[in-house]
Amino acid sequence: MNPPNQNNISIPLSPSLEQRLKEVAHMNQKTEQELILEALENHLKQFPIPKNCYDLAIELGVIGIAADLPSDLSTNPSHFEGFGE
């Protein structure tokens, strides 16, 4: 039985694919499940998860503390004196 945070899926296998899976799992001293999960993880690495605009902006360094300015510029009320006048 799988832990509560894991899901099961069923897929049909041809007899030849099932036999090959058993052989390769045996040769690598792994279970069929381990072999399938490993293959799936390796395959999915080819498809990176898309990043949102915020994450890209952080990576580019365009969001954050501006050079030569106080780190509390947007939160310290003393920096607001005279703002908008």
Automatic annotation (TrEMBL):
This is Ribbon-helix-helix protein CopG domain-containing protein. The lineage of its organism: Bacteria, Bacillati, Cyanobacteriota, Cyanophyceae, Oscillatoriophycideae. It comes from Crocosphaera chwakensis CCY0110. It comes from the Bacteria.
